[in-house]
Amino acid sequence: MTANRLAESLLALSQQEELADLPKDYLLSESEDEGDNDGERKHQKLLEAISSLDGKNRRKLAERSEASLKVSEFNVSSEGSGEKLVLADLLEPVKTSSSLATVKKQLSRVKSKKTVELPLNKEEIERIHREVAFNKTAQVLSKWDPVVLKNRQAEQLVFPLEKEEPAIAPIEHVLSGWKARTPLEQEIFNLLHKNKQPVTDPLLTPVEKASLRAMSLEEAKMRRAELQRARALQSYYEAKARREKKIKSKKYHKVVKKGKAKKALKEFEQLRKVNPAAALEELEKIEKARMMERMSLKHQNSGKWAKSKAIMAKYDLEARQAMQEQLSKNKELTQKLQVASESEEEEGGTEDVEELLVPDVVNEVQMNADGPNPWMLRSCTSDTKEAATQEDPEQLPELEAHGVSENSGSQEVLSELRVLSQKLKENHQSRKQKASSEGTIPQVQREEPAPEEEEPLLLQRPERVQTLEELEELGKEECFQNKELPRPVLEGQQSERTPNNRPDAPKEKKKKEQMIDLQNLLTTQSPSVKSLAVPTIEELEDEEERNHRQMIKEAFAGDDVIRDFLKEKREAVEASKPKDVDLTLPGWGEWGGVGLKPSAKKRRRFLIKAPEGPPRKDKNLPNVIINEKRNIHAAAHQVRVLPYPFTHHWQFERTIQTPIGSTWNTQRAFQKLTTPKVVTKPGHIINPIKAEDVGYRSSSRSDLSVIQRNPKRITTRHKKQLKKCSVD
Amino acid sequence: METAPKPGKDVPPKKDKLQTKRKKPREWKNPESQRGLSGAQDPFPGPAPVPVEVVQKFCRIDKSRKLPHSKAKTRSRLEVAEAEEEETSIKAARSEQLLAEEPGFLEGEDGEDTAKICQADIVEAVDIASAAKHFDLNLRQFGPYRLNYSRTGRHLAFGGRRGHVAALDWVTKKLMCEINVMEAVRDIRFLHSEALLAVAQNRWLHIYDNQGIELHCIRRCDRVTRLEFLPFHFLLATASETGFLTYLDVSVGKIVAALNARAGRLDVMSQNPYNAVIHLGHSNGTVSLWSPAMKEPLAKILCHRGGVRAVAVDSTGTYMATSGLDHQLKIFDLRGTYQPLSTRTLPHGAGHLAFSQRGLLVAGMGDVVNIWAGQGKASPPSLEQPYLTHRLSGPVHGLQFCPFEDVLGVGHTGGITSMLVPGAGEPNFDGLESNPYRSRKQRQEWEVKALLEKVPAELICLDPRALAEVDVISLEQGKKEQIERLGYDPQAKAPFQPKPKQKGRSSTASLVKRKRKVMDEEHRDKVRQSLQQQHHKEAKAKPTGARPSALDRFVR
């Protein structure tokens, strides 16, 4: 079937071909040579038709191969009939014209335009307006901030603010109606007139007025313009410098640095040609930089960065390179400048003047480098001395024992040093001895007599008296000691060691105080008193007196005052201690009853220990009981809430330390301390503060009113905001 | 041509002088404007210089205490306070320069003992007006006398054991009143002014006016042995045989507090003029310090092995002198330590003690009066050498230095003796506070003012400056309550909130990192602090000085 149909279609095709070929033949009658060419095309077509038989693309594409004279309306063939026709294609002319381009553009614009947005709802618009108005108002009002702050901090404010001008006539007016009458006055006026001093208008003399008039308007204008320009330039350069400074790129800075160096070199070359003296100075500078570099450790691979790189260098080629670079930079910087010699070699005999000059430069620079350098000037002997002094003084004697041949001066120095070192050694030893004051015996024996004297003192201390009588005796002994051993003797014998040992003794005593029972507390009283800054004076009478005292003692033997007091103190201490809370419930979790107590473990477990309070004020005062209870009546009068700017009570306390009453202050001070914060003038209307009152020019009110009157005026920024809102 | 000398120009300003104003007004810099109309220059321009030490005396802010870091606003307040203090103290120092009178002392020639100079010699040497201040009242009839000077030092009241009560203007010797109360008089005291007189009689306390008219009989204060008047609080403190210390507010006539000392009979009492604390001496050798606000003594000091016979406190409140039955005279430091500074055993012990305004100490021993002087006003009297001694016609029963005068009044069995003690009284008086020359009108005015400035009784405490401190306990309590109420601490430091940064550095990771950093830093601080504390503890625990010896175990 298909084959038949195919054959039919082929037939039809051939018929059509023939029909079509008719005019062609007619046309080609003159040129017969193209006949074989036609055959080839036909063959091609056939092939195409065959190939189009299979697949979906079975529809035959009509092709008008040649122009025919009569184009029938039924025979219109559309090329690329599958494509959609675009409006622009219709408009496209044969050749593009500019007028059409604009139309096209408009068309595209029309196409891109979307529908008109909905207007925002009323609330949102109002909100935005409010925001804008608020911002603007806040900005306007912010100029009042310093004024408000000043007024808040002011010691006193006086209202009303506008002050009435005092009705004092200016001096000119007074003087104008005044005439010199007495001869003295006349003389003075004459003098004034002679010197052209102002008499009636004392502000400006004629000379001053003339000088004021001297500068013309144009001149002034020019000058002002000049100044303005200079200012503008300056600010421009400043801004530029700031901008460049901010650039963080390392590469950029590297490039800039390089450029600068190159430029400097060029300039230097030029300078050398033009002004050798200046070049010399420049060279000196470079030399100085080299010296600085040599001194510093800047490029020595010793910095933080360099160290980190050194670690990485093993594995990282780049790091290695960076290190190398740094080292090479150091080398480069520390290299001695060879400019002069090079130039000498290069320029040789070309320019005699320079040849003469350049070596000089080199020499001078070296001299300069050497001249002020104190290290280079040192002679050998001084160096040795230095070394000697710097050495450890303890090694010095050994040095001397070696017997190095030295001149007399150095020997003197050495002998002095030796003495010093011996002293040092002594000190050292004595310090050691102090450290082991109660150490081994042989060491003690080796020492000077001073420590031996001390031992009895040390041994003496532990005796402790038990009874009143003994205490009395002790007191006597001490008195005797005080009397019989005057200070200078003691000081002479014990020399410098006593101050070292003194502070130790009280400390030990204190420690002991904690250990001994309270019974013996008062016995330590007299030494503790002795340690006070003010010496105790205890006078002793003759024997009669002593007998008398003995009698008194016997009379008071019955009532033990000290024991009673200690007991009282102990009770007070106990009472003031915070109590532990015992939460044990007898019989809970175990057997209970008469005679049964909860176990110790349980009691321990349920005992809440009270936190230890602060130490008592009379902790170290054996003869005093100080009441630790709070005086609540007085506390009611104390400040209990910190006022505003203070964060710590110490700060506030400092501000109320000075009394303000007239009892403690002079009248003036009292008045000043109690001045009222605000003073008003009676009978005057106090108007609100105005801009003019505080020195502002324009009134802030007008700004405000502008905003309030036409709130529709919105800045571009706020327009943007509006848009954003609408998009959201 | 200038004829005026200019001494002030070349002299460089002394270093220790303070200028009142650091910033001088601009006019002073210009020498031309310093000149007056006559063209003469001020030889001493600017305010008078004041020595720094004098200014320091009036400074009250303790700058040694380091304050915690404060905000700018707080700092400005602190600066204002400090500037105010400096200004006021400079002003006070400058006004002190106006005090013309200077105290004088007896000074013996080389080796001469001033104690050997007797009253007759002194009277001979001084001017007539001063010589008139030495007198004896021979009142042998009515037995040993107690006496009291009024606060201005102008009036003297005395009461004899056998009922004789008199008040007089002792300078002019004009008698105000003289009565016999027909009862034993234990003590006598002027109230705030010379117009009122409190007399402790055998049974009760009576109050008389300056005419000798009995105004009140206060039966709640019975068997009073000693009286003490606190002028700024308008309190009359009475110590009774029954062992009660009673405070009577004389401005309203109310008993403020009646405290039981629980120490038997009270007959030794004195007041501390600095803080209005009452010192009571007891038979068990202790001195107890009392305030009407507390039921218990503020402090108890064991002073003597026997009973305490007399107590006196000096005008600065720094030193307390006590004498006991053990014949000792001790001077204690009252500035927190309560330790004796000096001790002296007297042959018979001192029965009465008194301090003068300038710190002289007098002790009455039998019929002898000994006076000791210190180095200056703020130093304790040195008990080595007496400054003056005087023997009276009978045993001493009452002692008091007259305020603002170099006079010591002694009451004894033979009457009253007024002694001259050079250097005892304060030479300059405050005319507004206690003016010896005031008129009746002035006295009345002062009375009103003093009543208006009356200090409440409950403010009496050991350290009066403590009232200018914040009540820390209440403050902390309030804070705690607030935290409980709110559920959070409003004053707590807000957690660190990193600031937003530009250029995309505000990523969440970096924010977290920054937060972490701050947290770590805080943690490190905490650890550092705790480590330091540990170190401190260890350093404390370590035995300082010598190494512990094996022999230590035998040391008790």
From TrEMBL, chain B:
What does the UniProt entry say about where the protein is found?
Answer: Nucleus, Nucleolus
The source's superkingdom equals Eukaryota
Question: Which ranges form a coiled coil?
Answer: none
Q: Which residues form the BING4 C-terminal domain?
A: 386-464
Q: Which UniProt keywords apply?
A: Nucleus, Phosphoprotein, Repeat, WD repeat
Q: Which segments carry the region annotation Disordered?
A: 1-49, 484-556
Q: Which Pfam families match?
A: BING4CT, WD40
Instruction: Map the WD repeats onto residue numbers.
Output: 301-335
Spell out the GO cellular component terms annotated for this protein, sorted alphabetically and separated by semicolons.
nucleolus
Query: Chief localization class?
Result: nucleus
Q: Which InterPro entries match?
A: BING4_C_dom, WD40/YVTN_repeat-like_dom_sf, WD40_repeat_dom_sf, WD40_rpt, WDR46/Utp7
Q: Which SUPFAM superfamilies match?
A: WD40 repeat-like
- Whether Repeat counts among this entry's keywords is yes
Q: Subunit structure, briefly?
A: Part of the small subunit (SSU) processome, composed of more than 70 proteins and the RNA chaperone small nucleolar RNA (snoRNA) U3. Interacts with DDX21, NCL, NOP2 and EBNA1BP2.
Summary of the function given for this chain in its UniProt record: Scaffold component of the nucleolar structure. Required for localization of DDX21 and NCL to the granular compartment of the nucleolus. Part of the small subunit (SSU) processome, first precursor of the small eukaryotic ribosomal subunit. During the assembly of the SSU processome in the nucleolus, many ribosome biogenesis factors, an RNA chaperone and ribosomal proteins associate with the nascent pre-rRNA and work in concert to generate RNA folding, modifications, rearrangements and cleavage as well as targeted degradation of pre-ribosomal RNA by the RNA exosome.
Name the UniProt record assigns to this protein:
WD repeat-containing protein 46
